[in-house]
Specification:
six-stranded mixed β-sheet; 23 strands; rod-shaped; Helix Hairpins; alpha/beta; Heat Shock Protein 90; 49% helix
Length: 627
């Protein structure tokens, strides 16, 4: 079998399943636009757009119920009334005047005279560098153009486009019409006239930022940005009733250098209102005010450029792959945090580029991609975690069984060894008494007895370790004077001390009896004193001191032997650990003595500490609770 075949055979595809499923689901998402959801994100950006601010450039003159009542006329009023209002308005010298009123042909000679007077007033205004234009609408019979004698003043379509057949299909106004069948809309015409008065170049429909042409409508559109809320009574665009202008009830300079829009705004007529991102359910935004916002958006280049959808698709795939890799490598809680942070970064980034640059990033696919990644990877991670947890549980069960078998084996072995060891020691002792006078036999038997003692200590240590690890070690607490235990141990070890000519000095302060397990504490002190004797040289001194205070009874055992290296000192209480030096090689031991000493002391609620200097000796300090 070739190396390539071996690699293919060992290739684990299972771990790539979540990533494959993620990419497939993300690609499936691309087949749907999710326009209603995207409209929510888009409208939020529009409502909180800090990159477009209010400018006091537009004034609205409204024909409404209040003017009807004051003038005693009905919409659209007589030509005489309009001529009187325009005469007052033109005296204040506005820059651009848009007339968004559907006016019929004159019905009488008087109307014709009034119409001529109105035309004359407008012509004088235009001759004085003013800009006047009618705004028209479309109905079932076509465009509602001005009366024949006024058409020469110019007119353009002034349609409010709503999303009823595109995007969210919710009848909300988000885009404006720039050009229809080659003719500029009223908004673009008015914006260009105002831009020229500001010494800025006019814009063609194709030059508007983010504009696009739709062949089906034969029109050019652009998404626009609101400078403020268009809801009636909440915005800052100035509005004045028609009749107040007619009678001159406005301060001088109120219309000077402004764009003035004249049109209907009847509360009783829902057709005069429109839905916007600020009011998506109630018709509370007057169309007249929205016309003003559209013109201002074009004047100041506050339109929106939709970033191509393929950019969103590419970003979605990159996020899906990157987020999948990250989530697969971290813990679920951290993965959730990263997912939330990724979502926040996407939304904040899209909001900032919209406000700062007028760029519309289609975020719905990006947001859904994050959700898809998380909800695909979480189950797979959960399955993986469950499998690992199950494996750990099974391993723990197996280790527990093995540990139990080990404990039972050691316990049985230790108990079974104690009997033959005791028999060997007994036989050796009897034989030694019978062989009195035979030096060689006595020496051999003495070695056998010493070896059985060492073996018996080792077996006892193993049994204690077994009890500790099986947690079967119980304390048998009694009141006992610690000094009496020390004196007994010193007496027992007098022979061993004498063989090396070691002097054991005791400095035992008077103590009250304390609660302790005599057997275990005797093992502790015996081990420490015996070690001091083992590791001290000939003709040396071992000191044992005791004292107490309100909380503790302290035992200090010190020798002036070889000492313990600093690197070894922190490990001397570890299980099966022995210091590696010349003395340790010649002295027998199991490495369990100090481990058991520390355990027994801590079992009593006490503590043990060691300090040592090479070639100067070692000091052990044991503290037991004084009660």
């Amino acid at each position: 079998m070739s190396d390539l075949e071996v690699k293919k055979k060992n290739w684990d595809f299972a771990k790539y399943y979540p990533l494959i499923f993620t990419v497939i689901f993300v690609v499936i998402l691309f087949q749907y636009s999710f326009s209603p959801l995207e409209a929510i994100f888009y409208d939020l950006r529009v409502k909180f757009d800090f990159g477009n601010w209010f400018r006091d450039e537009v004034v609205l003159i409204t024909l409404d119920e209040e003017s009807d009542e004051y003038l005693g006329e009905n919409y659209p009023y007589t030509y005489a009334t309009h001529e009187g209002m325009l005469s007052r308005l033109f005296q204040d010298r506005p820059r651009v005047v848009n007339y968004l009123i559907s006016m019929g042909e004159p019905e009488s000679v008087r109307d014709e005279e009034d119409l001529k007077n109105m035309r004359t007033s407008i012509d004088k205004y235009v001759e004085n560098n003013g800009h006047f234009r009618f705004g028209t609408e479309m109905d079932a019979w076509g465009e509602q153009i001005p009366p024949r004698d006024l058409r020469g003043l110019g007119y353009s379509l002034a349609l409010i486009n709503v999303d009823n057949a595109a995007f969210a299909k919710d009848d909300v106004s988000r885009r404006l019409i720039l050009n229809i069948s080659g003719e500029d809309s009223l908004h673009l015409w008015s914006a260009n006239r105002f831009r020229e008065s500001l010494s800025e170049p006019p814009l063609s429909a194709t030059e508007v930022f983010g504009s696009y042409y739709t062949s089906k409508a034969d029109a050019t559109f652009a998404m626009y940005r609101y400078s403020e809320t268009p809801i009636e009574g909440k915005g800052r665009i100035k509005a004045i009733n028609f009749h107040k202008v007619r009678v001159g009830l406005f301060p001088k300079g109120y219309f000077t250098d402004k764009i003035v829009l004249v049109g209907p705004s009847y509360i009783s007529n829902v057709a005069d209102y429109v839905l916007t991102p600020f009011n998506k359910e109630d018709y509370r935004a007057p169309k007249l005010g929205l016309h003003g916002q559209l013109i201002q958006a074009l004047v100041h280049d506050k339109t929106v450029y939709p970033i191509p959808r393929y950019v969103t698709y590419a970003l979605s795939l990159l996020i899906a792959i990157a987020l999948s890799i990250i989530i697969s490598q971290v813990r679920p809680t951290k993965g959730l945090l990263i997912t939330i942070m990724t979502m926040m970064v996407i939304l904040i980034f899209s909001y900032l580029i919209f406000c700062l640059f007028g760029l519309w990033l289609y975020v719905t696919h990006l947001v859904l991609t994050v959700f898809v990644v998380y909800y695909i990877w979480v189950p797979f991670r959960a399955i993986g975690e469950y499998q690992r947890r199950y494996a750990i549980q099974e391993e723990a069960k197996l280790l527990k069984k093995v540990e139990s078998l080990k404990q039972n084996f050691i316990s049985l072995m230790s108990h079974d060894l104690k009997t033959p060891v005791a028999k060997i020691a007994g036989i050796a002792d009897v034989t030694m008494r019978d062989a009195q006078g035979n030096v060689e036999v006595t020496k051999g038997l003495t070695n056998i007895i010493d070896a059985t003692k060492e073996l018996n200590k080792f077996i006892t240590s193993i049994l204690d370790l077994t009890k500790i690890e099986s947690q079967n070690l119980a304390l048998n607490m009694v009141n006992k004077d610690i000094n009496s235990i020390i004196q007994g141990i010193v007496e027992e070890l007098k022979y061993e001390a004498g063989q090396k000519n070691i002097r054991v000095e005791t400095e035992l302060a008077p103590l009250y009896p304390i609660e302790l397990d005599v057997t275990l504490i005797k093992r502790v002190l015996s081990n420490l004193i015996e070690n001091a004797l083992k590791y001290s040289g000939e003709n040396s001194t071992v000191s044992v001191k005791t004292w107490d205070d309100d909380d503790w009874v302290t035992i200090e055992i010190a020798d002036n032997g070889v000492g313990i290296p600093e690197d070894d000192l922190e490990h001397i209480f570890d299980k099966f650990y022995r210091v590696k030096n010349d003395a340790s090689h010649s002295i027998k031991g199991t490495g369990l003595g100090l481990y058991l000493v520390k355990y027994f002391v801590e079992l009593h609620g006490g503590s043990i500490a060691a300090s040592s200097k090479l070639r100067q000796g070692t000091n052990f300090t044991v503290k037991l609770i004084n009660k």
